[in-house]
Write a structure and sequence with these properties.
alpha/beta; Aspartate Aminotransferase, domain 2; seven-stranded mixed beta sheet; two-stranded antiparallel ribbon; 30% helix
Length: 216
């Protein structure tokens, strides 16, 4: 049982911005450099997040949905390619797929964890299947070992949707670092917030010939 109010997008409940955070925001405002293109703070944050997850690359974006869209654009599916996804997720997971003219194919969930059921995953694979974004729903990790086994067998790109699972561990490994790419949200109700915002992490950049940052 969680005691006290949870974070909400409606007011200040469930969070406290201390003096350190206020000074950091004020320092950016007083610098006169408010855009990430020329500023240094976002790059510093990217590096710290990459170090935290022990990944090589972390690219900050405007939202968790933008993180998923960036990952999907990086994958560059052809129109009509199929993406295997859980039916229990935020609409942002699906928006990233349909915006690339790919087709979301819903795979049934494990009734206990409410994450995508690895036993059902392989049954939905077709010649058009390109990827799967397992969603770590409510902070509970999807069963990544069998998911990765199926993905490697069928050459599927794995984009972990970690919007609700910052620093969640799966068998001693942090989610977002197990698949090919991980996507996080910093929206106001999340574990870490920037008001809105997100980040994409990966061990391997330029997998499809161009840098991930160009897609962001």
């Amino acid at each position: 049982m969680i005691e006290g109010p949870l974070p909400t997008i409606c007011n200040a409940s469930g969070r406290l911005f201390g003096e350190e955070k206020k000074k950091a925001v004020l320092a950016v405002l007083e610098s006169g450099i408010l855009g990430s293109t020329y500023g240094k703070v976002v790059r510093q944050f990217e590096q710290k997040f990459a170090d935290l997850l022990k990944v090589k690359h972390a690219i900050a974006v405007s939202s968790g949905t933008a993180a998923l869209h960036t990952a999907m654009v990086y994958l560059n599916p052809n129109p009509g390619d199929e993406i295997l996804v859980s039916p229990i997720t935020d609409m942002g997971t699906i928006i990233a797929i349909v915006c690339q003219q790919a087709v979301p194919v819903f795979v049934d969930i494990d009734p206990v964890t409410q994450n995508i059921d690895p036993a059902q995953l392989e049954k939905h694979i077709s010649p058009c299947t390109k990827a799967t974004p397992p969603v770590h729903i409510y902070g509970s990790p999807a069963d990544m070992d069998p998911i990765m086994e199926v993905a490697r067998k069928h050459n599927l790109f794995v984009i972990e949707d970690c919007a609700q699972a910052h620093l969640t561990e799966y068998k001693g490994r942090l989610v977002g670092t197990i698949g090919d790419m991980g996507c996080f949200s910093f929206q106001q109700s999340k574990h870490i917030t920037t008001g809105d915002g997100g980040i994409v992490v990966t061990h391997e950049d330029k997998k499809f010939g161009r840098e991930l940052r160009l897609y962001a």
